[in-house]
Fold each of these.
Amino acid sequence: MNFIRKIVSPAKKEDEGFYYELKKLLNFSPKKINYYKKAFTHRSLKLKDKKGNPINYERLEFLGDAMLGSIIASYLYKKVPKGTEGYLTQMRSKIVSREHLNELGKDLDLIQFVKSNFDKELVGNNIYGNIFEALIGAIYLDRGFNYCKKFIYENVIIPYVDIPKLEGKITSYKGLIIEWCQKQKKQYNFEVYEDSGNENVKHFSVKVSIEGSLVAKGRATSKKKAEEQASKRVYFALQDEITKT
Amino acid sequence: MNFIRKIVSPAKKEDEGFYYELKKLLNFSPKKINYYKKAFTHRSLKLKDKKGNPINYERLEFLGDAMLGSIIASYLYKKVPKGTEGYLTQMRSKIVSREHLNELGKDLDLIQFVKSNFDKELVGNNIYGNIFEALIGAIYLDRGFNYCKKFIYENVIIPYVDIPKLEGKITSYKGLIIEWCQKQKKQYNFEVYEDSGNENVKHFSVKVSIEGSLVAKGRATSKKKAEEQASKRVYFALQDEITKT
């Protein structure tokens, strides 16, 4: 165990906890832990390196923002072959909006890693998106473009990017399912319960049944998100029936 | 020869000329020639693929712009460790400015590849930058991020990116050299002559002599650029003397 730690990471004893938490978050092994420490260091600590350059996440934010932008651009280019340049630009803006990035940073509970000189409870929302971008910058420096892409697919594109919803064609899957059930005179039920398991962050699960049979489940960090996730699954399960009516 | 062509490129006979010109431009072997054909196709041709999606360079422009932005961001991040987030953002804007990209597209003589339904002579300047970006998008799709990076280093960063000049510390190397010579009461001479060789595009060479000895040469597509290049070389050759006075 100690032997393995020495190979995969030159981390000092004090970094061990951080290293393992980080590995779980990233879903791969970080190599140079210092990049990640920087990604979670707020300038209020006033840290400097040997050359007098400040150590905090602001420069990494710039880098991560650029990497995120190019990876989302390449995803959209391939995913929507009919999308014009204007369409692609607009969709990307929605995906990388400050609001969206703050939500992502919150869901990943990145604030637990942040070292600062202020009360984290009092901080504005933007810190979540900022450290999310800084983390992407650190991944790029540590492991290169492809790991960055993998992280963004796993944490942004797969769980959150939903083209019909971004296009505004569907604003709420829950609303759509309820409306459809009412029109079709079908009984429906949303069963919501807390389901945090062993995780630090509170989670909720939702079961959606139609006419007494379970159609889909969802699980997320808020009731609303879990309901949307489950409803989206119902939508895709019953898409043929829903769209023809 | 025919055998090699079949391996490296499934190009049709009619694409052969384009393939070899392109390979010279890229400094590596393109694999899927269709991406590059698209990068040089103007929408005035109104081409469509089997699915009815338009074939022109506009979507590739979006992709190339994003890739260029992220590669320049990573270059600046590493190159200027003291640069704040604001500094890095500003420097990047200067490097990827429309004006700068148009200049790059012109210097690479990309217009020779463009297929369109209009008179190329009458076209606005922006087409040069647009097809330069589209070409970067095509490189990304064909060969991935690292080839893209290599192309941008060879064609943007190494020949054009000059941090002191972008910072506005030095606005003209020629001006700086002349001013220094006058102060130091040294004789100087700029000898400019046309020097296109076998190339399609006109080129100029410049020799800069100080006190009768040749100090540096420059060569570029305009007199002004060749003079700046030569002067910059003089500056770096005599940097110790120039900066101490």
Amino acid sequence: TQNYRITLLPGDGIGPEIMAVAVDVLKVAGKKFDIQFEFQEALIGGAAIDATGEPLPSATLDTCRNSDAVLLAAIGGYKWDSLPSNLRPEAGLLGLRAGLGLFANLRPAKILPQLIDASTLKREVVEGVDIMVVRELTGGIYFGKPKGIFATETGEKRGVNTMVYTESEIDRIGRVAFEAARKRSGKLCSVDKANVLEVSQLWRDRITQLSQEYPDIELSHLYVDNAAMQLVRAPKQFDTIVTGNLFGDILSDAAAMLTGSIGMLPSASLGAEGPGVFEPVHGSAPDIAGQDKANPLAQVLSAAMMLRYGLNEPKAADSIEQAVLQVLEQGDRTGDIISPGKNLLGCRAMGNALIVA
Amino acid sequence: TQNYRITLLPGDGIGPEIMAVAVDVLKVAGKKFDIQFEFQEALIGGAAIDATGEPLPSATLDTCRNSDAVLLAAIGGYKWDSLPSNLRPEAGLLGLRAGLGLFANLRPAKILPQLIDASTLKREVVEGVDIMVVRELTGGIYFGKPKGIFATETGEKRGVNTMVYTESEIDRIGRVAFEAARKRSGKLCSVDKANVLEVSQLWRDRITQLSQEYPDIELSHLYVDNAAMQLVRAPKQFDTIVTGNLFGDILSDAAAMLTGSIGMLPSASLGAEGPGVFEPVHGSAPDIAGQDKANPLAQVLSAAMMLRYGLNEPKAADSIEQAVLQVLEQGDRTGDIISPGKNLLGCRAMGNALIVA
Ligand SMILES: CC(C)[C@H](C(=O)O)[C@@H](O)C(=O)O
Ligand SMILES: CC(C)[C@H](C(=O)O)[C@@H](O)C(=O)O
């Protein structure tokens, strides 16, 4: 029997509901593959603010460090929107990424044949789309200094943030991306703004250098504005994309929306060592929280990514992904992905369907 | 008779071909509305590099300053891609923006009924889309300091750029956007990343403050990642968008691509006083340069924007826009927008069609 200690961070809004489903699904997969999970729960985001005054209590970070992987649901909500930014739920998420050194964020955007009509793009444009965005997650303008709001000599305020990358930061995320591309179709597109930004020039130089170590990978470069355009124009041209923190934030969301069903998309955040964090791309959806309406599939697929990338249990990951495909195949849908002729299920019922699938 | 001195910057690639068409169309409109244009041509981009070694010779900037408006075609090409960045064509464009103080960039993305099938999005999603992106153009990370590639203590390189906005910079672009929204549907969406960036927090604060002066305008705020998503999910929700230089670069291109025909989209760059610059959104398309294949309509519509926003000649602007709609209505198309049953025209033939329209 393999034993894993998993930290659960249900967070806010629909978080607890979708997390409950993911835990059930993990238990079933565990039985099937002789894996024992020890779950420990901790506070983050609004839930942590309400209980402790802080979005990421140090106890939470300790619990996470002391585990094999972290499964996160979603954070945030209107309730905490007016707090100062360092006390808001998002600060907890940024602190978790920094605290665990999670520099590599993997965001797949894959069109599922069963849900292709949910896309706002024409079928022929998105059919077969399968993109992996590799986003740098602990550097760039999210963390660069100086940052803040300062007074100028004339007395007016001046907001400042700094986009910074060092060569070693670029190399480390570059390697993750080249390796990811190698496991996929062998095509990597690096996205920057090297025609304007020096930080992007360094990025492009290093990625180009690095490509000499990966002669089997076909590397291309795009400017971020063009990449945003090409995602809309012809998304099938992309396989693996590597980019910095801010560009990755924007492009991975645009890529996600190509599928039309953001309630289906998981993500993985990995460090050099220590536990990774696995979470859905969607938010905490406070408007439908507690109503058993949420789509738990992105959370369940995040659990599958945890098995694959965090625990190296690909068979258990496969079986969960298969279960998701099967419930979709048999026509089960939550409200966000319903279409005529399909079965409308609540969050829990979808969980039950997965368990028997 | 009204007299205007217009600087023409044909630039590179297809630039000279599409500029020739726009000039012909302007002359026709001038005759009709008793407007006399005095055209003066100057060098920019690759053409300027080849002739003078610099992408923006000071003579060009002088000529521009000494005119009522500047009509720019397109710059850049593979030929100059390996030059150091301060000597590349793009540096000429950035220098022109800074040199003329063009802080406000207006980028309309409007679906034309005749070309709706060119969109990669479903008809019902894009029908009626009419978005105006107001992008700040002389600040933000494009110009902020410090910037450069520096050596760290450990000897590795570190790329740095700085995203900066002062209150007065935000106010000034904010006013342009509120005024633009007032002339349109009265809805303004401000885009930032205030959940992470301090510079965005200042941006959001000032725009919110400013909205008190525009009680008739309905203001909303979106994070840039969500905005990229919403443009793909439901673009009709947007009317006027205001955002910083980098986010505007990305989002205006994504919005442009919703139309499916970037060969149709003009833009205007305006300062507090002095001449504005009017140019198509598309690039210099070096692969089809000199083959009489280019679509001149974005250039012609840029000339119309010049009449409307630069010279305050709305009637002449209307007549040019009407001519464009009419040639589309009668089925005339260049190669980039051709579809079955339509008439394929070259660049010059399209120009002739516009003149008789
Ligand atoms: C909530 C926010 C801080 C976060 C980010 O910008 O990274 C989110 O948008 C994401 O992409 O995970
Ligand atoms: C060519 C480049 C410097 C420019 C920019 O980034 O502003 C272009 O992308 C644009 O949007 O006009």
